UniProtKB/TrEMBL annotation:
<keyword id="KW-0067">ATP-binding</keyword>
<protein>
    <recommendedName>
        <fullName>Cobyrinate a,c-diamide synthase</fullName>
        <ecNumber>6.3.5.11</ecNumber>
    </recommendedName>
</protein>
<feature type="site" description="Increases nucleophilicity of active site Cys">
    <location>
        <position position="448"/>
    </location>
</feature>
<feature type="domain" description="CobQ/CobB/MinD/ParA nucleotide binding">
    <location>
        <begin position="9"/>
        <end position="195"/>
    </location>
</feature>
<keyword id="KW-0436">Ligase</keyword>
<comment type="function">
    <text>Catalyzes the ATP-dependent amidation of the two carboxylate groups at positions a and c of cobyrinate, using either L-glutamine or ammonia as the nitrogen source.</text>
</comment>
<keyword id="KW-0460">Magnesium</keyword>
<keyword id="KW-0547">Nucleotide-binding</keyword>
<dbReference type="GO" id="GO:0042242">
    <property type="term" value="F:cobyrinic acid a,c-diamide synthase activity"/>
</dbReference>
<keyword id="KW-0315">Glutamine amidotransferase</keyword>
<feature type="domain" description="CobB/CobQ-like glutamine amidotransferase">
    <location>
        <begin position="254"/>
        <end position="454"/>
    </location>
</feature>
<dbReference type="GO" id="GO:0005524">
    <property type="term" value="F:ATP binding"/>
</dbReference>
<dbReference type="Pfam" id="PF01656">
    <property type="entry name" value="CbiA"/>
</dbReference>
<feature type="active site" description="Nucleophile">
    <location>
        <position position="337"/>
    </location>
</feature>
<dbReference type="InterPro" id="IPR004484">
    <property type="entry name" value="CbiA/CobB_synth"/>
</dbReference>
<comment type="pathway">
    <text>Cofactor biosynthesis; adenosylcobalamin biosynthesis; cob(II)yrinate a,c-diamide from sirohydrochlorin (anaerobic route): step 10/10.</text>
</comment>
<dbReference type="Pfam" id="PF07685">
    <property type="entry name" value="GATase_3"/>
</dbReference>
Length: 483
């Protein structure tokens, strides 16, 4: 069995919000300044942190998920992505051991670390700690000895005396090296809003912010020692060769990919897999474009922030009409979360203003003042769609602040079990998503799916695009008088 060896380092945290992203960005920039090609990753189903990783590395960030993906697929996607890279830098999700539930490592950064056999740098927020930081570090060291905690990074360090006390408390019992810190008055704080960080493309002077973060990391973090640790990562088996064909199909399927300030939430591996299996992804912008590109055979509209651009989306009537007409003609259209909101009849923003949307699926999305849903879900397809036949189980993720009335049972895409109550009784199932269109050619849902969880989802979508392409070509031939 062939192996892949690439220096790898994981930046994990004791909890969310302890400074993982800042350390990660600083290290990516510092490694790049040393002439290294850095492949960034983010654990879990995150779309926002990766926008900063991508900018810092000048390479697309990819997600590593051990709940939606099997270990073999996750490792296979990782080894495929690092081909040609000099180092892989992985930012964890939440706390090191936080995953799908309270027991077991599934979906956690710790599981990723064990599968990749990679060293972990643990970030601790020391703002209100001194010797107690040692107890915290000792607990993480002992909790799962199979996770290699190779070093510690301290955030929110106040004074030199504070740093010394924290260091003494940690070294008293653990022996874990402290490889750097960030001061309490850090030079940069990345802006946030309701879904998390503001995407990097919307931040003014973001390049200057990244430069300031790198300068701080270079000053107070032992970058060379971290690079040496990364080079000690164990080699990995090359992974699942069935993920991609040895030779890509010669005949391409042209799929429009909605990508602009309103729509940008995609797993990069989804796009890679589509391309590998014959898709030509054509960028379209519901904000700026007025017509769809010619000869499209399908459309993929991901999540994003349509609520922040609702007025502009509504004003672009010609593009909305083009999508409605294409969907009405039978073109396969797949939409996730923000894409669902756009395909619906209207969107009500946080100010209560209603904006007309495409109208390809029934319903109105209404923005709420608090989060509606967040977390992994297991869904069962209740009818055939462009991704799966009825009865198939899908692994997905939801994260949204808007709400829509439950779909008409005649058109619902999925049935999702609700969470169990404290007494252990299931609260009941809910219907989610809509299958619509003249040939069931539209699938729109709040559910985010990773095609690596079931390659048949992607294959079915591509085949439906090919079938529609052949049918549309035959219709055009007849209309032109062919025989």
């Amino acid at each position: 069995m062939s192996e892949t060896r690439v220096p790898t380092i994981i930046i994990a945290g004791t909890a969310s919000g302890v400074g993982k992203t800042t350390f990660t960005l600083g290290l990516i920039a510092a490694f790049r300044a040393r002439g290294l090609r850095v492949q960034p990753f983010k654990c879990g189903p995150d779309y926002l942190d990766p926008t900063y990783h991508t900018l810092a590395a000048s390479l697309p960030c990819r997600n590593l998920d051990t709940w939606m993906l099997t270990p073999e697929v996750m490792t296979g996607l990782f080894t495929r992505a690092v081909a040609g890279a000099d180092i892989a830098v992985i930012e964890g999700v939440m706390g090191l051991h936080d995953g799908r539930g309270g027991a077991g490592a599934r979906g956690s950064t710790a599981e990723v670390a064990k599968l990749l056999r990679a060293p972990v740098l643990l970030v601790i927020d020391t703002a209100r700690l001194s010797r107690s930081a040692g107890a915290m570090a000792l607990g993480y060291q002992a909790f799962d000895p199979d996770v290699w905690i190779a070093g510690l990074l301290l955030n929110q360090v106040g004074t030199e005396r504070h740093r010394r006390w924290v260091t003494e408390g940690i070294q008293e019992r653990t022996g874990i090296p402290i490889l750097g810190h960030l001061p309490k008055q850090a030079p940069v704080k990345l802006p946030e809003r309701h879904l998390g960080l503001v995407p990097a493309g919307e931040v003014e002077d973001v390049s200057r912010s990244l430069a300031a973060i790198r300068e701080q990391v270079e000053a107070t973090v032992n970058v060379e020692e971290i690079l040496a640790l990364a080079r000690a990562a164990a080699p990995l088996p090359t992974g699942d060769r069935a993920l991609c064909p040895e030779r890509p199909p010669q005949r391409k399927v042209r799929i429009g990919l909605a990508r602009d300030a309103a729509f940008g939430f995609y797993y990069e591996d989804n796009l890679d897999l589509l391309r590998a299996w014959g898709a030509e992804l054509v960028a379209v912008s519901p904000l700026r474009d007025h017509i769809l590109p010619p000869d499209l055979q399908g459309l993929y509209i991901g999540g994003g922030f349509p609520e922040l651009h609702a007025r502009e989306l509504a004003t672009n009537r010609s593009f909305r009409r083009q999508i409605a007409e294409a969907a009405g003609d039978g073109m396969p259209v797949y939409a996730e979360c923000g894409g669902l909101m756009y395909l619906a009849e209207s969107l009500v923003d946080l100010e209560g203003e209603r904006h007309g949307m495409v109208g390809a699926v029934p319903g109105t999305s209404v923005m709420q003042r608090s989060r509606v849903r967040l977390g992994y879900v297991t869904a069962t397809a209740v009818r055939d769609s462009i991704l799966s036949p009825a009865g198939v189980t899908l692994m997905g993720h939801e994260f949204h602040w808007s709400n829509m009335a439950p779909p008409d049972p005649r058109y619902a895409a999925y049935r999702i079990p609700e969470a169990c109550s404290e007494l252990g009784r299931r609260d009941g199932d809910r219907l989610e998503g809509i299958v619509a269109g003249p040939a069931g050619n539209i699938l729109a849902s709040y559910l985010h799916l990773h095609f690596g969880s079931d390659l048949q989802l992607m294959h079915r979508f591509l085949e439906r695009c090919r079938v529609w392409m052949r049918a549309a070509t035959a219709d055009a031939f007849v209309m032109e008088g062919g025989s």
